[in-house]
Specification:
Length: 426
């Protein structure tokens, strides 16, 4: 006798990997990401060396705000809200389910709720197994376990939770300008904390509606692209139409609540990144390519050397935590003023074959008004990027207009490397 569950499994057929927009193109075999091979997980096991391992587990931020912003930099993890959100038990599903007569109406409602809870933007995507971590996860809805190992496959998770909700949180633009500084760190870390809280509250709300939720099972970037939140830039970050790259993604929520998926968007990132290269030219670790795209895991996109980017952190923790240079210099990240809006919409509305005529003038305008590397002085609370005190106690002269940038040894050979590349091509 065939059960209803078995019938449902047989009826479910998976289409090829969904279209994710023009900024990425699937050209080969896509292998689902193994969460155990992501940077933080590799570092936890000590695979990236002692300096990084020690930075992850044994650092304490010099800034009291930094010590409550992220548990890894706290003197007492109980003072960081991250510890409490991550360790909170999962709530039960309300047995009195709210019936959904119109998924479109429910989708609009969920988006309003998510924004009320703190999300800057929200998108919905139909779940595909390829976008879930390949090793499986314990189900997050309390419905039991599957398989001999107690794990649930990506296919079964996608059947059980067919919709993904992706949210982004945009951190403050002015604070983000003080990248490589404690001010930028505060914007970044507290933005991540705000998004964690938003996701936790939204998951709880969906359970109260009577529907299941799964978290920490989906890879954020493809879900965000498929949900129409933005496009992926040369720097490997999501670029949104309103906030540029100054957004946090977080882990999407999977649910069986009936919703209507969104579609990928085209805001001209694919065309602009070809000519811009500001993120690559200013990256202090040369982790962003100045060349064309390559194929990574079956996907045609710009290659990012995540390891050189990641390895910088223990060497600069005396001064700051998160670099964010690529985010700060990105033209799409600029404030939402009328001339920035006109520029973005001009590229978006120009027919694709003609966009090359628009992108170069837009790049020139960005260089002219904001500079090739923004260094405007930022003052926030007791922090001031125009004042610098060195570890030996030396106080540098105050910069009335510009912020200080700490010297980075990793950056000294960038132009030598570019010259070597040009010689090799000659």
């Amino acid at each position: 006798m065939v059960t209803k569950e078995e019938e449902r499994k047989e009826e479910t057929t998976w289409e090829p990997i969904p279209y994710l927009g023009r900024s990425v193109r699937v050209v080969g075999d896509w292998v689902s990401v193994d969460a155990a091979q992501t940077p933080h997980e590799k570092n936890k096991r000590g695979e990236l060396g002692k300096p990084l391992h020690n930075w992850y587990f044994n650092r304490t931020s010099r800034d009291p705000l930094g010590r409550i912003a992220t548990a890894n930099a706290s003197a007492d993890r109980r003072n960081a809200i991250e510890s409490h959100i991550g360790g909170a038990p999962r709530g039960k599903i309300n047995p009195e389910r709210t019936e959904v007569a119109d998924p479109k109406v429910m989708t609009e409602h969920i988006k309003r709720v998510a924004k009320h809870l703190g999300a800057s933007d929200v998108g919905i995507m139909r779940v595909h197994p390829s976008f879930l971590y390949k090793e499986g996860r314990y189900p997050d809805d309390g419905s039991g376990v599957g398989g001999p190992s107690g794990m649930v496959s990506a296919e079964e998770t996608a059947r059980r939770f067919p919709y993904a909700i992706a949210c982004v949180y945009a951190w403050d633009y002015d604070m983000g300008r003080a990248h490589r500084h404690r001010i930028g760190d505060a914007a970044y870390h507290f933005g991540a904390e705000s998004l964690r809280s938003t996701y936790a509250n939204l998951a709880g709300y969906i359970r109260e509606l009577g529907y299941g939720v799964a978290t920490r099972v989906a890879t954020p970037m493809p879900v965000a692209l498929g949900a129409g939140l933005g496009e992926i830039g040369r720097h490997g970050m999501l670029i949104t139409e309103k906030f540029g790259a100054r957004v946090h993604l977080g882990d999407p929520i999977l649910t069986d609540l009936p919703l209507v998926p969104d579609e990928p968007i085209d805001i001209g990132v694919e065309d602009f990144c070809k000519v811009c290269r500001k993120c690559a030219n200013t990256c202090p670790t040369n982790s962003i390519s100045t060349e064309g795209k390559g194929v990574v895991n079956g996907v045609e996109k710009y290659k990012i050397n995540w390891e050189t980017c990641y390895r910088l952190r223990p060497h600069v923790m005396e001064y700051w935590d998160i670099c964010m240079t690529c985010v700060a210099v990105c033209p799409y990240t600029k404030p939402d003023v009328w001339w920035r809006t006109v520029a973005v919409r001009s590229i978006k509305w120009t027919p694709i074959p003609l966009r090359g005529l628009v992108t170069r003038p837009m790049k020139w305008i960005d260089d002219r008004f904001w500079g090739k590397l923004g260094r405007k002085r930022v003052q926030w609370m007791s922090h001031d990027s125009g004042r610098l005190k060195l570890p030996d106690g030396t106080v540098m002269p105050e910069e009335p207009e510009r912020g200080y940038y700490y010297p980075l040894k990793e950056n000294t050979r960038r132009f030598d490397i570019l010259k070597e590349k040009l010689k090799s091509k000659a």
